[in-house]
Write a structure and sequence with these properties.
alpha/beta; Rossmann fold; 2 domains; 5-stranded parallel sheet; 5 strands; about 10% strand
């Protein structure tokens, strides 16, 4: 039986949600605030899913989601909010929330969101198990790749296929990110062979689950530095492409349209290279970029 943690400062709300979730087959525990919830997660058995109120006295639901992302990455979080707010959706996505529900709660909507969270939890657990399994095969994989031309497209496809066996969405996401990363590189004036290196770096980013040695990944993706110092690094280009894809293809109920996704990245995200963000603003992005 999956454990669900309800976090809300209003006891009647917690009790109502408990009844609903128990009818859906969850083992339910409660917490009156974000800090108490985090203590429960770290001191006891971590829940599979958390349904947390966005606005509570003291720490809010986004803070809790951020903490859980670090200490219990397999736990899937659903955020509850009183009104439909654009900034809530953006902030929640950036904190790793898988869905959100609006108050007053609708029974069917809560059930749908929790089932989505349960599915996300199962996927994360499978991915964690895959990482653990593949780490034990690290030496074998490295040896097998030693006699292969590592920059060949067939090698990239083979690695993507290996990860895709446990997460079918990896290949499609990798292709989207790579396409956008190449567009950004060309807009920035990057030329071959670095454009191909940027594409491979984007395609293989999610292959870190294979636990390949750093020197093998370096040979696959090429030089990640900008020799002339004028263009952003490969990693800086790929980081922006991945962030845009995460927001515009979010797993929440409604992904952000291109213009809003770009605005969300450009505003208040100093970790991204300003030149790459400027290039992103010039691209004509479709709703399924």
């Amino acid at each position: 039986m999956m454990r669900a943690l309800i976090v809300d400062d209003e006891a009647p709300v917690r009790h109502l949600l408990r009844r609903w979730l128990e009818r859906d087959g969850f083992e339910v525990v409660e917490a009156p605030d974000a800090e108490a919830a985090l203590h429960q997660v770290t001191a006891e058995h971590a829940p599979a899913v958390v349904l947390a109120d966005m606005r509570m006295p003291g720490r809010n639901g986004v803070w809790l989601a951020q903490q859980l992302r670090e200490c219990s990455p397999e736990t899937a979080v659903v955020m509850a909010t009183g009104v439909h707010e654009f900034d809530v959706a953006v902030t929640s996505m950036q904190a790793g929330v898988v869905d959100y529900v609006e108050k007053p709660f609708a029974r069917e909507r809560v059930s749908e969101a929790l089932q989505r969270a349960a599915a996300a939890h199962r996927t994360r657990c499978a991915q964690a198990e895959l990482r653990k399994e593949l780490q034990t095969r690290n030496a074998q994989v490295a040896e097998a790749l030693a006699d292969v031309e590592l920059k060949a497209a067939t090698t990239v496809d083979a690695l993507l296929a290996l990860v895709e066996k446990r997460d079918p969405s990896v290949r499609a996401r990798a292709r989207r990110v790579a396409e956008l990363a190449v567009s950004l590189a060309l807009t920035l004036g990057v030329r071959e062979p670095r454009v191909s290196e940027v594409e491979r770096a984007a395609l293989l980013h999610d292959c870190d689950a294979l636990a390949l040695p750093e020197d093998v990944m370096a040979r696959l993706t090429g030089d990640t530095t900008a020799p002339d110092g004028r263009a952003p690094t490969n990693a800086q280009i790929v980081d922006v492409a991945r962030a845009y894809d995460s927001i515009s293809w979010a797993t929440l109920s409604a992904a952000l349209p291109p213009a809003d996704a770009v605005a969300a990245l450009v505003t208040g995200n100093p970790e991204f290279d300003s030149r790459v963000l400027a290039a992103l603003q010039t691209l004509k992005l479709s709703s399924h970029q």
